[in-house]
Amino acid sequence: MTAQQTVGMRTLVIGAGEAGRALVRDLQRDARHGLRPVALLDDDPAKRHVAGLDVLGGLDDTAAVVLKHRIQVVVVAIPGLAPRRFRQVALAAEACGASVRHLPSYVAALRRDVVGGDLDAVDVRRLTGRGAIAVTRPGTGAVIAGRRVLVTGAGGSIGSELCRQVRRLQPSRLFLLDHDESHLQRLGLDLYGSALHGDDIVISDIRDRARIDQVFAELRPDVVFHAAAHKHLPLLERHPCEGVKSNVTGTDNVVRAALAVRAERFVLISTDKAADPVSVLGATKRLAELIVQDRAGASTVLTSVRFGNVLGSRGSLLTVLAEQLGSGRAVTVTHPDVARFFMTVSEAVGLVLEAARMARGGEVFVLDMGEQVRILDLVRTVAQALHVPDPEIEFTGLQAGEKLRETLFAEHEVHLPTRHPRIHAAAPTSRDEVATALGCLPALYAAADTNDRAEVRRLLARMLPGFPAQAQVRERTQEGERARVVPG
């Protein structure tokens, strides 16, 4: 395989007929499409190899192949595929975290110079019932083109998609920063065909202030997207000091470094759990938002983007559900009524890029994400897509820090319209509230550095009214459900 063929998202082609073969050859010849075919599926057992790639099974094997081979994109290249069969394949792929595109007409593709122009997206909104949301608008790329862009947490799901979309907007340089070298290597291979792409790939930990200062002084980015964070809610309840070190101290370090080099724009990736937070994840991300607001007003435009759960990301709910259903194990759901907001990775990144363009400083942008989806309903939809008629469901009880339903805005936050019809903003918190919260940062950092979990929770509760000083988890007993305090 040539270096060019190693570039792009791992792609599974559905259909080994004339259209599929031509598509594979075109994608292998031209890496500009951003798709790297790694295998095919076809119901004809006589078709075993195409253009050096294996045909790994029939269309019913879509979910298994996507999971086993870490497929990122599935392209359906059977023009005459029946709509019902197409939906089965698309839902199976989407349930496992892959995006789906289809080649509606091979004849039409032959009339175009770029075969990618006919690859129409099919997204996970079919699973969640969400309507189409156009996030980015013409002109969004103006804040990226010709500029030096740095993405922290570049190897993560949001960070890597940011890198892919930013790269297409033609920055003068794109710097990928992460502390996990394996994630960086994988992203480097996807983007460039090599993990050794000059000085653009940077191993660095956002907790290390001196190292971050050094990196920013050397690279002098114009635009910074800060996606690096600890994001696993249950684990952070057990390890709150680590949440503070990464999500608060780390953000503080990156903001300071961006201001020191007079970056033009800084965008923090936040979460809906920061609205009236009751979890360590939400509390630390809310403090990160307040740090961004507090530093706004300088030459650097600083803003935050808050959104819900991301589908298709590494370890996302759909991937976990697909793995549980595929293994025959019981599907674990915390509560029959638990519900969440959902969006696709590409949609989330589109919002981030649009926010970078609209930002004036200090805002928290929030996408209109529609109605929350009940997890139990989502399980049944995914099970249907994977042909599991009656999945066994085990209710485990709400975990520490988990809400039954999320909110996008805190109760006291004022909703403000923006120039984008589907994006709102939370009015900045009063300066007095910000000062009260951030005045405890030195004490919080000291408690985290000494790994004093109880003191970290006590300080978070003092800084953010409503945050519980002690974590509670609902657990099942023979007598029913009860609350248990998780040791600090």
* Number of contiguous helices: 17
Helix content: 25-40%
Overall pLDDT level: 82
CATH class of the largest domain: Alpha Beta
CATH architecture of the largest domain: 3-Layer(aba) Sandwich
CATH topology of the largest domain: Rossmann fold
* CATH 4th-level superfamily of the largest domain: NAD(P)-binding Rossmann-like Domain
Number of domains: 2
Strand order of the largest sheet: 10-9-8-11-12-13-18-22-21
Tell me the Rg in angstroms.
23 Å
Strand content: 15-25%
Q: What structural class do you assign from the helix and strand content?
A: alpha/beta
What would the principal axes of the Cα set say about the shape? globular
Strand count, sense and barrel status of the largest sheet are: 9 strands, mixed
Distance between the termini: 53 Å
Q: How many DSSP-defined strands?
A: 24
Low confidence ranges: 1-5, 104-123, 473-488
Domain Polysaccharide biosynthesis protein CapD-like: 149-426
InterPro entries: NAD(P)-bd_dom_sf, Polysac_CapD-like, Polysaccharide_Synthase-Rel
Family: Belongs to the polysaccharide synthase family.
Protein name: Polysaccharide biosynthesis protein
What does this structure look like?
- Belongs to the polysaccharide synthase family.
- InterPro entries: NAD(P)-bd_dom_sf, Polysac_CapD-like, Polysaccharide_Synthase-Rel.
- By secondary structure, this protein is an alpha/beta fold.
- The protein has two domains: about 5-120, 3-Layer(aba) Sandwich (Rossmann fold), CATH 3.40.50; about 140-475, NAD(P)-binding Rossmann-like Domain (Rossmann fold), CATH 3.40.50.720.
- About 40% of the residues lie in helices and about 20% in strands.
- The protein contains 17 helices and 24 strands.
- The strands form seven sheets. It has a nine-stranded mixed beta sheet, sandwiched between helices.
- Helix 7 links the parallel strand 9 (about 175-180) and strand 10.
- Helix 8 (about 210-220) runs parallel beside helix 10 (about 240-260).
- The longest helix has 21 residues, at about 240-260.
- The model is unreliable at about 1-5, about 105-125 and about 475-488 (pLDDT under 50).
